[in-house]
Design goal:
Length: 501
């Protein structure tokens, strides 16, 4: 069973590393390799010492033949002990570096180039635990050897506590549900393997260097065999949790990898965009053709009415109004198309979040003067933004949300705009209780020319344009929607200055 868990952790971390090859996956690979290295060494050591119950043997080795084969392997104890020492020492270093890399605390971000200093203590410990040097410390006195043992346990415990605090603090600080879910799985996986690690990190490899060391036992040191003799059910449950959350955690990393991979596939993506643009152009041409045909019909009716001896003024006014509506719609569509595909020049300057929200509300109430919008601005800070373009993007999201509420026929209309801190970002949350969207629709709504509304009045460039504006602000756009319940858009824009909140 334990072999299966170790194999899964190692293979998954290698796969994710080759898929992404970024700093986080490198640290995750180092973490998993050190974890596997430590436990493989302990398993080999326990196979040689024996003294385990049948259930414990099944959990550790799965098959008794594996234990027998491992017990007969020629593996010098000093090398085996140093293998365990390497895994035991490097694991907390990689874990803390990973927690630092995930953390968005300002002072940690400012010292990002110095994170490598975390590995100083692990490297010093590895030097001291080199078999010949560590055993040589005994010549200077047993107290020195046990001082190293105690000091190592102390700094490892501090590293683990610091990493746990950073991970929990980061999770608590995330407000975007999608990001919170992805980070939750990664965090729980790290905590699970951390718990497994904690069962053994207090045991010192000196017991492997000198099997059944009398000095180590007199000092009160813990043995690997003592910990392994714990309840098998406890280990089974912990292993199942580790595997389960390991799958979810690695899938969370993989989901980001796939998105990044899809965005950088070059020719395939270009072809997809060209196909989509071709389809959108055909939709646009078809819509314009229909409206021109409508104009032709109205023109013929106007001519026929005017050729009469006594034209009906009421009909003439009606035809004129219909022509005016169609022409205005065509002009608006042309302007929207031009606005969406032209090169937009934006000037990003320090802008107050409240200014952006006020612009959004002013425009919104021009169209829906009686509509109520709940506004909460928790983050009154500066962001790098073009106030005109950003407010236009948020206005589009607010209008879409309110019109979705109207289409759903809600008696209680709920539309809110909330501005919150999100570490280095400010998040604009626009939530409605409209009709929501299915997963299929959510995958398409940002495609140009896609729309679920009447194409005579809306032809699907609004959300595409919104996403382009947010990208030009170096921001992120996320969507959470449940069909029949409502939709929430999260727009994260970088702060102008990192502030100690």
């Amino acid at each position: 069973m334990l072999f299966v868990v170790l194999f899964f952790i190692l293979s998954s971390s290698i796969a994710i590393f080759f898929l992404r090859r970024d700093k986080q996956t490198r640290l995750m690979l180092g973490l998993c390799v050190s974890f596997v290295c430590m436990f493989i060494g302990i398993i080999i050591y326990l196979s040689k010492t024996g003294g385990l119950q049948t259930g414990q043997k099944f959990f550790l080795f799965f098959d008794l033949r594996v234990q027998r084969k491992l017990s007969y392997m020629i593996f010098p104890l000093k090398k085996l002990g140093y293998m365990i020492a390497m895994g035991r020492t490097l694991f907390p270093g990689f874990l803390l570096m990973l927690a630092f890399d995930y953390s968005m605390i300002p002072w940690i971000l400012r010292s990002k180039s110095k994170h490598i200093l975390i590995m100083i203590l692990p490297c010093i410990t590895l030097v001291l635990y080199y078999p010949s040097l560590f055993l040589g410390l005994a010549k200077w006195g047993k107290w020195l050897q046990f001082f190293v043992i105690n000091f190592t346990i102390m700094w490892i415990a501090c590293y683990l506590a610091a990493a746990l605090w950073l991970l929990l603090n980061e999770y608590k600080s995330i407000t975007i549900p999608y990001c919170k879910r992805q980070f939750r799985y990664i965090m729980v996986f790290l905590i699970c393997i951390g718990i497994m690690y904690c069962f053994y990190f207090r045991q010192d490899p000196i017991q492997v260097y000198q099997m059944y060391s009398a000095e180590y036992m007199r000092y009160g040191g813990l043995l690997y065999s003592t910990t392994a003799s714990g309840a098998v059910s406890r280990w089974m449950v912990l292993s199942v949790f580790t595997t389960l959350f390991g799958i979810l955690g690695f899938l969370s990393l993989k989901s980001y990898s796939i998105m990044e991979h899809e965005e950088t596939r070059g020719d395939v993506i270009i072809q997809k965009k060209m196909d989509m643009a071709s389809k959108g152009l055909s939709v646009f041409v078809h819509g314009m053709k229909n409206q021109l045909l409508s104009n032709r019909v109205l023109q013929e009716r106007l001519r026929g009415e005017l050729e009469k001896e006594d034209p009906d003024k009421k009909k003439l006014l009606e035809y004129s109004h219909m022509l005016e509506t169609i022409n205005e719609n065509m002009i608006n569509r042309m302007e929207e198309l031009y606005k969406s595909i032209k090169s937009n020049y934006m000037t990003l300057v320090p802008t107050e979040t409240s200014e952006v929200v006020l612009r959004v509300l002013d425009r919104f109430h021009e169209k829906y003067p009686d509509a109520a919008v709940e506004t909460v601005i928790e983050a009154r800070t500066l962001i790098l933004a073009d106030a005109v373009h950003l407010s236009e993007a948020l206005y589009n999201l607010a209008i879409n949300g309110y019109e979705s509420i109207l289409e759903a026929g809600r008696q209680e209309k709920s539309l809110s705009i909330k501005v919150r801190h999100e570490r280095l970002y400010v998040t604009f949350e626009i939530r409605d209780n409209g009709r929501g969207m299915s997963r299929q629709v959510q995958k398409k709504i940002f495609d140009p020319f896609y729309t679920s509304k009447n194409t005579n009045n809306n032809w699907g460039l609004g959300l595409y344009y919104v996403r382009q504006i947010i990208k030009n602000h170096f921001g992120m756009l996320r969507l959470e929607s449940t069909e029949g319940e409502g939709t929430t858009f999260f727009v994260a824009i970088p702060k102008c200055k990192i502030q100690d909140d």
